[in-house]
Specification:
- With 430 residues, the protein is of the alpha/beta class.
- It folds into 2 domains: 40-233, 3-Layer(aba) Sandwich (Rossmann fold), CATH 3.40.50; 250-424, Nucleotidyltransferase, domain 5 (2-Layer Sandwich), CATH 3.30.420.240.
- Helices cover 41% and strands 18% of the residues.
- Helix 10 packs across helix 11 and helix 12 packs across helix 14.
- It is elongated.
- The structure holds adenosine-5'-diphosphate (ADP) and magnesium ion.
- Magnesium ion binds at residues 63-64, 147.
Length: 430
């Protein structure tokens, strides 16, 4: 007797098998898999999602955690491959740790080098940096997550040429998660999702305060320490135009940004702009580390700024000095340089310290440094969102008081580039 199935019957059997398989996987999932209970604004996205989903949200809204949650369904319960795209190698390393720690109870194997984990269901998560998305070419995914993708250069073409083709075979979907960064490709994507008639694209905007796990004081803290336009962007998640009169341009920072530092430096300094109690707008201490390369170019290496007590910032600066094997710590002498020195010496009396002298106003001091950027002679090694917001959102015309990270950056580069180059020019003449 030959048994023949109709197509409908065959499909029904297949569905049953899938359901059985799913049940089996669910039974195997240990209880200690940390469950993510989506907060209401995340749950809204999960409920309303289409194929291509763009979440524009403030810092710490819960974008990355939501992204991890989105991996679980296809990778764990359906046994499918998922691709995760980070904006930089540094971010990739952080997210890799996070994903591994969350999913370790359901992990079958992991490959640290390839940044690939395989789950007990046979599904996988592969993680890539958008600094070289080409290396992921030829992969097929049921879902891709692009985290902090407003930082990605030419996001639209990377999407169309490299990532979207990865979704064709499995008819996969995509989540674009980011805080905005000016009016760039991420904004274009977000706009696609604003057309309610579009069958494939959907987008949302949420401020940081949509995350009930973030205390309102944290948000107040950001309001106090950020230029107001930066707050609009970083916390309110609005797409902000370039600020008229700002000395730095985001396009310039992006153009000359590098992902790794040169092998050697002529000199490395850590510059401090201490919080001064007389300033009412800001209470951060700027701590910026910069290096001078053999090419006479400046490299911004680290930003350890923050709201600290004097003892804390002395420790931070010395830790930065040690980590980079820097040559010196520097600070302006008029604006508390003596205080800086005394404070540092209290932590470590042998740390080499140099004071710099301010003969001119803050805006005037910043201009030659901004000019070096325009000439393509300063490179940020990776991303420094808070520092870069101060550079691109501060305009001397609006607000005479320049912010602390910016000031520390100006000190570091003045010391390395202006002083050094002057000396070099003199020795050439002589
Ligand atoms: N649904 C949630 N439940 C509990 N905590 C959450 C949730 N979503 C976000 N968080 C917490 O909020 C903080 C910010 O989340 P994160 O995903 O890092 O934000 P973002 O990527 O938007 O900056 C983290 O401490 C995270 O654990
Ligand atoms: Mg994140």
């Amino acid at each position: 007797m030959s048994s023949t199935f109709s197509v409908a019957e065959a499909n029904e059997k297949l569905e049953k098998l899938k359901e059985l398989r799913l049940l089996k996987i669910k039974e195997q999932v240990p209880a200690d898999l940390r469950r993510i209970h989506l907060h209401p604004a995340q749950a809204q996205v999960a409920a309303e999602c289409k194929r291509f989903n763009v979440i524009d949200a403030g810092r710490r809204y819960g974008k990355s955690l939501f992204g991890i949650d989105r991996c679980i369904e296809p990778a764990l319960y359906k046994g499918q491959p998922v691709g995760w795209f980070a904006p930089s190698y540094k971010n990739l390393a952080d997210m890799w740790r996070e994903v591994v720690s969350m999913l370790s109870p359901v992990m079958r194997s992991k490959n640290e080098v390839e940044k690939r984990i395989e789950l007990i269901s046979g599904g996988s998560i592969e993680m890539w940096s958008m600094e070289s998305p080409d290396s992921a070419r030829g992969r097929h995914y049921a879902r891709v997550i692009l985290d902090e993708c407003a930082m990605v250069k030419d996001l639209m073409s990377a999407w169309n040429l490299i990532i979207r083709p990865m979704l064709m075979d499995l008819r996969g979907d995509a989540y674009f998660l980011s805080t905005p960064k000016g009016r760039n490709g991420f904004m274009e994507m977000w706009e696609l999702g604003q057309d309610p008639e579009d069958p494939e694209w959907k987008s949302w905007r949420f401020p940081t305060s949509a995350n009930p796990h973030i205390h309102p004081d944290e948000i107040e803290g950001m309001r106090k320490t950020m230029p107001s336009k930066a707050f609009e962007q970083e916390v309110m998640a609005r797409f902000i135009d370039e600020v008229q009169g700002a000395l730095w341009k985001l396009s310039n920072l992006d153009q000359y940004r590098v992902s790794s530092p040169p092998d050697e430096f002529l000199k490395i300094v850590v510059a401090i702009d201490p919080a001064v109690s007389t300033s009412s707008t800001s209470d951060e201490t700027g701590i910026i580390a910069a290096g001078l390369g053999h090419d006479d170019h400046g490299y911004i290496l680290a930003d350890s700024s923050g709201t600290y007590s004097p003892l804390e910032w002395a420790n931070k600066a010395i830790a930065q000095y040690d980590a980079l094997e820097a040559n010196k710590i520097i600070a302006e002498v008029n604006m508390g340089g003596d205080l800086v020195k005394a404070n540092l010496m209290a932590v470590r009396s042998t740390v080499p310290f140099d004071s710099v002298h301010a003969s001119r106003g803050k805006a005037i001091r910043a201009e030659p440094i901004a000019a070096l950027y325009e000439q393509g002679r300063v490179h940020h090694v990776g991303f420094f969102p808070d520092l870069e917001n101060q550079l691109t959102f501060w305009s001397p015309a609006d607000d005479r008081e320049s912010p602390d990270r910016l000031d520390a950056l100006v000190w570091s580069l003045s010391y390395l580039m202006l002083t050094h180059l002057k000396k070099k020019a003199r020795s050439h003449q002589g």
